Amino acid sequence: MIKTTGIKKANILQGIDFAMKQGEMVAVMGPSGSGKSTLMYMLSGMDKVSEGKIFFQGKDITNCSEEESARLRLQKMGFVFQQMNMLPNLSILDNIILPAIEYQKQLERKNRVGEKELVEKVKKLMEKVGISGLEDRKISEVSGGQLQRACICRALMNDPEILLADEPTGALNRSASEEVMKELVRLNWEGMSILIVTHDSKVASCCSRVLYLVDGKIAGEYRADSDDYHGKVVLKKEDTGKEDPGKKYLGKENPEKEDPEKEDQIKERNEKRLNSWLAEHDW
After folding, report:
1. Listed residue (190, 92, 196) closest to 147, CA to CA
2. What spatial distance separates the first Cα and last Cα of the chain, rounded to whole Å?
3. Lowest mean pLDDT among 29-33, 87-91, 235-239
4. Which of 9, 20, 7 is closest to 188 using CA atoms?
5. pTM of the predicted protein model
6. What's the average model confidence in pLDDT over 55-67?
7. Rounded to whole angstroms, how far apart are CA atoms 187 and 106?
8. I need a labelling partner for 168 at 20 to 30 A (CA). Which of 29, 37, 194, 225 fits?
9. Average confidence (pLDDT) over 105-131
10. Nearest to 55 by CA among 43, 47, 39
């Protein structure tokens, strides 16, 4: 999915070698100024490397033009930010649909989707993340958690290959954060590749892998126990509406659905293991 070789950026990143497979959910942690967000911006083409190579789906995108990078982001990548970048004068539905309208302009007329179909897609996405009925609300009329879930819908409108999330829960309270992470884990379980920049170990513990950056270098990498990674059990049968959703998760058919009490136990255990790993390295 993504691979970097020796990427550097002035005095920020000092030679990052990193690879992420299709379907992974990876967190990038580190102290302020360690280069977390810079790494994400370079992976997306928003920022340019000083040295090294970046590959996306096997293609070298290191030296893409601004226009090529913008097209790649619009067509292949979805973004969820701490600052949600919603337009206050538009409704939730109109904010979500904006990237899709821009994308349609780039397609040949015969391949374009009509406004009616786009609106229907917005409504289906909103229903999927549990905010159906808020289509006509202004952004000031919904909660922070609801608004960030709307941002997830916006990120999904063009059917991206990967979601890039920069501190997606940073401006939310704990309850809203859990709502947002539940949706991101659900998307990953369905096969979406997700890269998250975060300071929050509770958020990072939702991921199968955690990279820790110090002074622009990968200082360590944590891997969750594959048999205990709670991304595969966060979904309950009532969430999917089916006894057998027929989905694959990290190569496993139909991962078991646990009861809420056991899910909470696994989440707590994963967070403790990650925090212990961080403490071992004095991070």
Report:
1. 92
2. 29
3. 235-239
4. 20
5. 0.85
6. 93
7. 27
8. 225
9. 89
10. 43
**Of 171, 165, 173, whose CA–CA distance to 207 is shortest?**
165
Max CA pair span of the chain: 58
Query: Using an 8 Å Cβ cutoff, are 162 and 76 in contact?
Result: yes
Q: Which residues pair with 25 in a beta bridge?
A: 194
Q: Which residues contact 22 (CB under 8 A, 6 or more apart)?
A: 1, 161, 193
Q: Which two tokens stand for residue 2?
A: 């993504």
Residue-range domains of the chain with CATH: 2-280 (3.40.50.300)
Name the pLDDT band for 226 (thresholds 50, 70, 90).
low
Nearest in space to 178 (alpha carbons), one of 250, 130, 139, 134: 130
- Reduced to 3 states (helix: H, G, I; strand: E, B; else coil), residue 4 is strand
Q: Is residue 251 scored above 50 in pLDDT?
A: no
Residue-averaged pLDDT of the chain: 85
Confidence of residue 255 (pLDDT cuts 50, 70, 90): very low
Q: Determine the 3-state secondary structure of 251 from DSSP.
A: coil
Element (H, E) at 51: strand 51-56
